[in-house]
Design a protein that fits this description.
The complex is a heterodimer. Chain A contains no helices and 30 strands. By secondary structure, chain A is an all-beta fold. Chain B is an alpha+beta fold. Chain B has a five-stranded mixed β-sheet with strand order 2-1-5-3-4, covered by helices on one side. Chain B is globular and about 35 Å long. The N and C termini of chain B lie far apart (about 40 Å). The model of chain B has no long low-confidence stretch (mean pLDDT about 95). The chains are: A mainly beta, B alpha+beta. Chains A and B meet through strand 6 of A and helix 1 of B.
Amino acid sequence: MSRVRVLVGTRKGAFILTADGTRERWDVSGPHFGGWEIYHLKGSPADPNRLYGSQSSSWFGQVIQRSSDGGKTWETVGNKFLYDGPTGTHQWYDGTPHPWEFARVWHLEPSPSDPDMVYAGVEDAALFRTTDGGQTWQELPGLRTHESGRLWQPGAGGMCLHTILLDPAQPGRIFIAISAAGVFRTDDGGKTWRPMNRGLRSEQIPNPTAEVGHCVHRIAGHRSRPGVLFMQKHWDVMRSDDAGESWREVSGNLPTDFGFPIDVHAHEPETIYVVPIKSDSEHYPPDGKLRVYRSRTGGNEWEALTKGLPQRDCYVNVLRDAMSIDALDPCGVYFGTTGGQVYASPDAGNTWRPIVEHLPAVVSVEVQTLP
Amino acid sequence: MIVRVVLPPHLRTLAHVSGEVKLEVAGRVTQRSVLDALEARYPMLHGTIRDQATQQRRAFLRIFACEEDVSHEAPDAPLPQAIATGAEPLLIVGAMAGG
């Protein structure tokens, strides 16, 4: 029977949750790296026991951890993230030029075919890659040195490159997203990049339809439909049917279109999930009700999924990397909250229950489907 | 010279050591030579005390020697004789946090 392994990054360590394919009984291991912020953990699709973790702290900086046995044991690997060449400046919060400064790794995206190749999205925004299992990291500087880079500015959480999508159909095509610059795409493996933000509208910036400057929170796609992308922007849920060339809003009947994560059903490429959050100044669900919203039509028409989720007095947030979907049938949907709960649905969102309840604030959730 | 260094708890965990560490330091005993020896012996500590790009001490760490804060001394300034001889340990201390 297949198994699932859920990798949970929190403000104070990593946790690994495992279950068989019924997803009823869960074992919890951790905390790993207790006391450190774990922004992201992710496994290699090519070797599921190869895991990578981003461990950081305001005191001690960035550490990268690697496991070759599914998280039972870990070893530190390289943590030297040096920008390639002159760093230049981006905009600071007050609009003045500010030099690029490395702060942390937000997201690790292993190659689908090579366990030793991993992309890392970092703050201040740049894309790095390792081809030796994390021992050394090289920047792909074409992104940071894009002519628009001097106009990028940090969101409240820092100027982070938080999303990396490797196109499953077109080698060399990568989508990334930066808060607050927007979506960029390369078709040549990272040498050159183009902003892909046409159709986005953000009232919080001087020109609401500017080419860059949008606070994109997350993008997601389905591997069977590589040209179709879904986006949770700061406000607005968007979709693109032309590989990011243009976007249109699909917020439809959502109670609020602010939020952080967005993800796609494992087997239905038009079924998507978001977690509406009341506003950017009130980072909790509307009306104290934690509801996942599902659209089976690729957006616009949404249904609230509430069975098993708290429907009163709930004021947690769900962060951008804290939702994941397994590949079983029916697929399981998982998300973690800033209140330390990880909820799972073994039936594509119809019913939910917490599989662990009292962790530190959850930053990231990734699920692996194992043979 | 054998120099004794006391690491903050999180770095002891990261380096898989308990208690203080003893380091062979060649030449003059300075903050830089001690940290170089520490990172050579425990490569996982690279970047955790000094920034990888600038080699500046990380802002939330301080370095104490013989009950003095030497954090702002020049990195190549000699440390006190008691540190150089191993009579006293060099303390690497994390800023206190919490309410």
